[in-house]
Write a structure and sequence with these properties.
Length: 121
Amino acid sequence: MQTYKGEERRKYPRAKISFIVSYRIKHPEESYDLSQTKDASQGGMLLTTNREFEKGTYLEMIIRFPFVPYKIRLLGEVVDSKKVVTNLIYETRIRFVGPHKNFFKELGEFIKEKLKKEKNG
């Protein structure tokens, strides 16, 4: 895959960061699957999933972040889902939705600090 060289168009900076995520379709409810993020930002994340999701699907997620001492339950909307390996690995882009503004702000600060450390070595 080619690396994008153009101007950054995302609203929030994104960092390659790995969090363990339990996720399931919100409606109709299904059992949880376990995965991990490939990257994340204050506004969303890229999650490796075992199936393709339709754009607009709502996922309920339980995530443990290193800067929060407890698990966070979040709602996300699938923006895109692309096949990496048929019937095995998909990259699913998720936009966070919901009333967790303070948490999202904390996540944004955590990611900014991580990016700053990576840049400075």
